[in-house]
Write a structure and sequence with these properties.
heterodimer, A: 969 residues, alpha+beta, Leucine-rich Repeat Variant, Immunoglobulin-like, TATA-Binding Protein, 6-stranded antiparallel β-sheet, 5-stranded antiparallel β-sheet, 41 helices, 16 strands, globular, B: 159 residues, Beta-Lactamase, 7 strands
């Protein structure tokens, strides 16, 4: 090994560094530094030209000073001069300085770029690497402009040295990250992908990072990398631990490369080619098997490297979410880790299981570990591990174990770390609401929450319990009784007083029959807390009192007495004073009737998204700053009449675009299930767009590109949308939607976070679909990726995807275009998978794209005679498909016509002898053939039935069309 | 990887490498916050923590903490081994490395890191290859001087 600082040792630098180290105080250090800066400045400004060595030494000192945390405002020019030195170490220090202290001074950038250009073209690999490292370290836009087109050439050139290739690949990656628009792979794509086959493992290791990043943005262009990655992985996984020489790390063959390969594969759906898929499954099985083998070394490095691969493999298995066997094995493996003595492994197992919990195949398997996880929550010494355990409990919670999990989380709250209490409170509140079967349990849970962690119970939580109590009359009596009991405690949290005040003010009468909770007892109990409370709570209590006067006339005198005393009526706080004066006056002059009207029970709240859920999202979201803002705006809202209302108003704000209130049965409004079968019947005379918002007044919904999402309402038809919530416990197999069979535009999917609109156009056998992804929240979605896949034989169908920007800003909308070509007829629909991070949680959706065979219809006009002639020609039994079914929707003539036109066929008049019947004709255009189709629809209004007959020149098409259409009428 | 920090038990920053563009002010703020967070953790605690929307992976070697910030989809364990490999490289180059080596030869520590990681990704994971590159560079400086003077000499002769 080279003795350090031999030839190039800079004595002056070493002396300076020791001086700094010997400084006894910060002041002494600053003094020494200032002295040095003055010295260097005079040297740089001096008349005498400095030699390279001195320049290097001074630049290095400046760098050291900067790294100590001091500002440096000179020396850049000298550093740039060093770049063109012939001495390697001078050049190297010059580059280091530039890399660390970039200055966007345009003149310097030009000089720097010049020096880099010279080194890149020097053909000296060491210099080229230095220059590439500098570009990769700085990564500025100016550098991208200057070199983005040059570097791909260096990367793929046959005569480039391996080490230069490695630097070039990662340099390009950095430029691509900062300026994706400037890095165009184009013609180089396939050669870059083939770097995966390179002999040199280092080149593969470097190149794969670039390929992964590019694949995320342009999955289709880099698709060929999948099979290459699988075969490379398979070779590594099956190699003996010594085969790869220096790329073996503590007996683990190429752990970094293996992880990167597995990561690359996560950019794609499972390989469609059976052989490739088989090979990959084999690899994954081998990796899982190896985890069970005895370790080849006791060193932690060995087990870390091995497990790094294992966790990456598990991530891939979860990503595919299609191999139940592997998923369950992964879950079992993680289960073992849950009890491992290494804290790191326990942490990662908890984290990884959190994602497994959302897969339908492994949700049950994850649930079997509940006791271990609860135990982790209780006994782990490290707060970050406990946090993971709490997250996992939240993720594995469903109706079957909600009571147990909520109870455990509540008991954990008593000792939980302050840093995570607020989040825990929100989670408990959400679970209690989401899985509440009997609402007395819910009320108990929330009151317990306030009792245990009152300080961390935000306004949203107590607003929510009040909303629910007001909306559900079966729980009101119980709630009144329970808060009354809770308020008996000598010291209770102010939030409890708020809830108590509100609930007794509304429903105190329900427990007034019991002499132990007579009106006066209730009032005295509330009033005993009054003086300990803050102004907003007092204001709320005053409102509760006036409600008492209405509920229980016998308390009037007592309450008026309280209102009349100076501490109320002359209170220095304007709000309190005003309330006292007004309530006093109201109670003395208004008649009982007027009082009863004014102080009537609160009407039910409109169902909205739970304000708590919105809060948790906010909290977890990257823009967590706005939480305080939210709270500030709420602090004022603590009054009785306005309080709850304002609460839910702000809640609505928090729910971002809650302009779409969903009349949902679900308390949380997580799924926006609209009432079934409501809309279509009312649709009068629509043309094409039967189900969209266009009413009779606006027949052909012309949708403009911008504001597309705003133009459309949420899907009004049924809850039977294309939605499959990866994380939900709903039926995960795609319920085929038929909403888009007869129309091309509309809202494909919508939940609380995301709205996806589509607009599509078809000509002949080609189609183009515009997808609009709208972020309904105010927080950006990170790592937003979409993949389109064609299951099974559907590859006959070509879909070209354009990349989406990885971030979808709050409130923003992005567009994606898909080009579609129909090669032959098909019956399945392509799948659109969307992944993004919202807050901490990975959102994963798979939707069916509404591409159906009828989209490729060309209408054919023909006369009655022609029609029946062709009808007869298509007389083979398999060419015909027929179905008799009950009408599901309106049988109105105009509606039916609109649907048939929307189907894409020509609607033929005067063909069928019976004018009630409809006949249509069209040709389906596929690349391989054209399929003629004839259709006859015979409605029977009396029986509310239809008979649908299809005859096509290809049997599979008749069958498919018949299935599709039967759902439409 | 978004950045890597090396700091001492006393909280003194010894090396910083940023793979994402940030202002100096932000860098200082992040450093201060992270050093504080990591130093406050007890020895047996796990090596990973969530911090803002990043994952922090750290490990202590003697008096020095090595701390990496990775993104959500990055692998924690392999990052831990990136740290270890870097320590091995330093150790091999300096010959049982200690904090002082990194203080006095900070530029070397940066050069070695650049050979190993570039743009936040592993560039070359073979210990031999990385050290070979550094060695070559160390030798080059000598030979270049010679080469330079030979050229100069030739110019003299032919002019």
């Amino acid at each position: 090994m080279p003795a350090v600082s031999k030839g190039d040792g800079m004595r002056g630098l070493a002396v300076f560094i020791s001086d700094i180290r010997n400084c006894k105080s910060k002041e002494a250090e600053i003094k020494r530094i200032n002295k040095e800066l003055a010295n260097i400045r005079s040297k740089f400004k001096g008349d005498k030209a400095l030699d390279g060595y001195s320049k290097k030494k001074y630049v290095c000192k400046l760098l050291f000073i900067f790294l100590l945390g001091h500002d440096i405002d000179f020396g850049h020019m000298e550093a740039v001069n060093l770049l063109s030195s012939n001495k390697y170490t001078e050049k190297q220090i010059g580059y280091l300085f530039i890399s660390v202290l970039v200055n966007s001074n345009s003149e310097l950038i030009r000089l720097i770029n010049n020096a880099i250009k010279n080194d890149l073209s020097s053909r000296n690999p060491t210099f080229m690497c230095l220059a590439l490292h500098c570009i990769a370290n700085v990564g500025s836009r100016e550098m991208a402009e200057a070199f983005a087109s040059e570097i791909p050439r260096i990367l793929v050139a046959g005569d480039t040295m391996d080490s230069v290739k490695q630097s070039a690949a990662l340099c390009l990656l950095r430029l691509y990250k900062t300026s994706p628009d400037l890095v165009l792979m184009g013609e180089w794509t396939s050669r870059v992908v083939h770097l995966l086959n390179d002999q040199h493992m280092g080149v593969v290791t470097a190149a794969i990072s670039l390929i992964t990043c590019l694949s995320m943005k342009n999955p289709d262009e880099f698709k060929t990398c999948v099979s290459l990655a699988v075969s490379r992985l398979s070779r590594i996984v099956s190699s003996a631990s010594t085969d790869l020489q220096d790329y073996t790390y503590y007996f683990v063959p190429a752990p970094w490369l293996s992880c990167k390969l597995l990561r690359l594969l996560q950019c794609y759906p499972p390989p469609e080619d059976g052989a490739v898929k088989g090979r990959l499954v084999e690899c994954l099985e081998t990796i899982l098997n190896k985890a069970q083998e005895p370790p080849k070394s006791k060193k932690v490095q060995h087990s870390n490297a091995k497990n790094a691969i294992l966790f990456e493999a598990i991530s891939l298995i979860i990503h595919y979410d299609s191999e139940p066997n592997l998923l369950v094995r992964a879950c079992n493996q993680l289960g073992q880790f849950l009890q491992h003595r290494e804290t790191n492994l326990r942490y990662l197992a908890l984290e990884s299981m959190c994602t497994l919990a959302s897969s339908e195949f492994s949700h049950e398997a994850v649930k079997t570990h509940i006791e271990t996880v609860i135990n982790a929550l209780k006994t782990e010494r490290d707060v970050s591990v406990r946090q993971r355990a709490a997250d996992l409990l939240y993720a594995m919670c469903d109706r079957s174990n909600a009571k147990q999990i909520v109870a455990e989380m509540l008991s954990y709250l008593e000792t939980a770390d302050y840093s995570i209490r607020e989040e825990m409170v929100l989670k408990v509140a959400i679970l209690a609401e989401k899985y509440a079967v009997d609402y007395s349990w819910y009320v108990d849970t929330i009151l317990n929450l306030i009792r245990i962690a009152g300080d961390y119970v935000s306004e949203e939580v107590w607003y929510r319990v009040i909303q629910i109590v007001i909306n559900r009359d079966d729980v009101q009596g119980y709630a009144a009784k329970t808060v009354f009991e809770a308020l008996q405690a000598p010291a209770c949290h102010e939030n409890m007083v708020k809830v108590g005040g509100y609930i007794l003010g509304e429903f105190g009468n329900l427990i007034a029959g019991d002499p132990r909770s007579s009106p006066l007892v209730q009032f005295n109990l509330l009033h005993s807390k009054f003086h300990l409370c803050s102004v907003p709570t007092r204001a709320l209590l005053l409102s509760a009192y006036i409600k008492f006067i209405n509920l229980f006339p016998e308390t009037k005198a007592t309450i008026q007495e309280v209102l009349r005393c100076d501490s109320q009526i002359r209170n220095s706080d304007v709000e309190l004073q005003q309330r006292a004066v007004e309530y006093l006056k109201l109670s003395s002059i208004a008649s009982t009737d007027v009082l009863a009207t004014v102080l009537e029970e609160m009407p039910p709240f409109p169902e909205r998204e739970s304000s708590i859920l919105a809060k948790l999202k906010k909290k977890k979201g990257p823009g967590a700053v706005s939480v305080t803002e939210l709270e500030d705006s709420k602090r004022e809202g603590g009054e009785l009449n306005g309080g709850g209302d304002r609460g839910s108003d702000t809640a609505a704000m928090a729910a971002s675009n809650a302009s779409t209130p969903s009349p949902s049965a679900d308390l949380l409004g997580i799924r926006s299930a609209a009432p079934i079968g409501a809309a279509p019947a009312s649709a009068g005379s629509l043309l094409v767009d039967v189900f969209s918002e266009a009413g009779p007044a606006a027949p052909s919904a012309a949708v403009s590109d911008d504001g597309f999402l705003r133009d459309l309402e949420q899907p009004t038809e049924t809850s039977d949308s294309l939605l499959v919530e990866g994380s939900g416990d709903s039926d995960p197999k795609f319920p085929v939607s038929h909403r888009f069979v007869c129309k091309n535009n509309g809202v494909l999917f919508e939940n609380q976070l995301l709205q996806i609109g589509i607009k599509s156009e078809y000509r002949q056998n080609l189609g183009r679909m515009y997808l609009f992804f709208g972020n309904k929240t105010s927080v950006q979605f990170a790592s937003f990726t979409t993949t389109v896949s064609c299951p099974g034989e559907l590859q006959s169908h070509i879909l070209l995807t354009k990349p989406v920007e990885p971030l979808v800003e709050g409130g923003a909308q992005i567009q994606q275009v898909l080009n579609i070509e129909c090669l032959t007829d098909f019956s399945e629909a392509p799948l659109l998978n969307i992944k993004f991070r919202y807050g901490g949680a990975l959102q994963n959706l798979t939707l069916k794209l509404p591409v159906t065979i009828n989209k490729f219809f060309q209408p054919t006009e023909m006369a009655s005679h022609d029609f029946f002639q062709r009808w007869k020609q298509l007389s083979q039994p398999q060419q015909e498909a027929q179905k008799i079914f009950k009408a599901n929707h309106s049988m109105d003539t105009e509606v039916l016509k609109a649907k048939l036109l929307g189907l894409g066929t020509a609607l033929l008049d005067n063909v069928d002898p019976n004018p009630e019947n409809y006949v249509c004709a069209g040709v389906i255009q596929t690349k391989s053939q054209q399929v003629g189709c004839l259709l006859r629809l015979e409605p029977n209004a009396q029986a509310q039935m239809y008979r649908l007959t299809l005859r096509c020149s290809k049997d599979s098409v008749s069958k498919r069309l018949c299935e599709l259409l039967a759902e439409q009428f | 990887m978004q950045f890597m920090l090396l700091f001492s038990r006393q909280g003194k920053l010894r090396l910083q490498k940023w793979y994402v563009p940030l202002s100096d002010k932000e860098k200082k703020k992040i450093t201060r916050e992270l050093v504080q967070t990591v130093l406050a953790r007890k020895p047996k605690m796990c090596s990973f923590l969530e911090w803002r929307d990043l994952k922090i992976v750290y490990k202590r070697y003697a008096s020095l903490y090595f701390c990496c910030a990775i993104e959500d989809q990055d692998n924690e364990l392999i990052t831990l081994e990136i740290i270890h490999r870097y320590v091995e490289l330093l150790d091999k180059y300096f010959g049982s490395v200690c904090e002082l080596d990194i203080i006095f030869n900070f530029e070397k520590a940066y050069f070695i890191l650049d050979e190993f990681l570039l743009g936040g990704e592993a560039q070359e994971t073979s210990k031999k290859n990385v050290l070979k590159a550094i060695e070559q560079a160390d030798l080059l400086q000598e030979s270049l001087v010679v080469f330079h003077s030979v050229c100069f000499f030739l110019i003299l002769i032919f002019s």
